[in-house]
Amino acid sequence: MQIGYKLFAEAYSPQELVRQAVRAEAAGFDFVEISDHYHPWLENHGHSGFAWSILAAIAATTDRIGLVTGVTCPFIRYHPAIIAQAAATTALLSDGRFTLGVGSGERLNEHVVGRGWPAVAQRQAMLRESLEIIRLLWLGGYRSYQGEHLALEDARVFDLPDTPPGIAIAAGGPGSARLAAELGDALFTTEPRADLVRAYTEAGGGGARYAEIPLAWAPDDATALASAHEKFRFGLTGWKVQSELPNPVNFEAATAFISPGHMQDTFGYGPGAAGHLAVAQRFVDAGYDHLALINAGPDPDGFFDFYTAELAAPLRHMRSD
Prior knowledge:
- The chain is built from twelve helices and eleven strands.
- It is of the alpha/beta class.
- Helix 1 packs parallel to helix 12, helix 3 crosses helix 5 and helix 11 crosses helix 12.
- The longest helix has 18 residues.
- The two termini are 14 Å apart.
- One of its GO terms (molecular function) is oxidoreductase activity.
């Protein structure tokens, strides 16, 4: 079992995220995962630094810990040629510790460049073409590509690692889970869904299975739930909402009737380990083996201490019932 720490890039400054990554390495985490956003989810988050600059700084200030994007949309706001270059450079700067997590994106981040927001079927087709372009560029040499949605003209990534980064593909349904098996090296999800793992493995996927585990540590339950509500209530809207709303103000409106009490069914919360471990167990039982812990509590350093003392050992020995 591999245990990671989610760098909540919408809630903390770039400098603080680098500090947390260094602390995560000292606490014994196997990897850190960072979201790649242009906007935060909610106005009160107040941050959304450029993920690739933060990754470079983390690579320079850590020695062992893995780095993962969770996740990058490699089209619309970016072109896949840019992501191929960025991922290759990050892999070199981190001495091979980088995994490229990709997905079909959210309107929240992609609409900003004024190219519209395609329907989901088109986004999935664009993701497939993006992966084909990235893989092509990582072969070396000058490459061209003409797809239905994306094109590449006589491009070359000059600085390539000896071994290309692994690619983890985000899945919200069986179709994208099968795409992860076909064109990726790993599966990435945010829900404890065994059907996605099953679709991935039945399509031939044999790589890592990443999932984000929602936790909120605090010295008491009420503080933990209040912080989870403040930071992460957008997560309760579901993917069909999360992928479609354009700005934080829209998420503020969509979450207006979500209360701290609504967070109880989704999050491990409070000062005791049992509830946190029970939430993680749901994901392990569904078949996930790379657990990225989200701390939606108010105190990152308190969470690191809690993890070291009470979560690390049982999580590493956790197995499916």
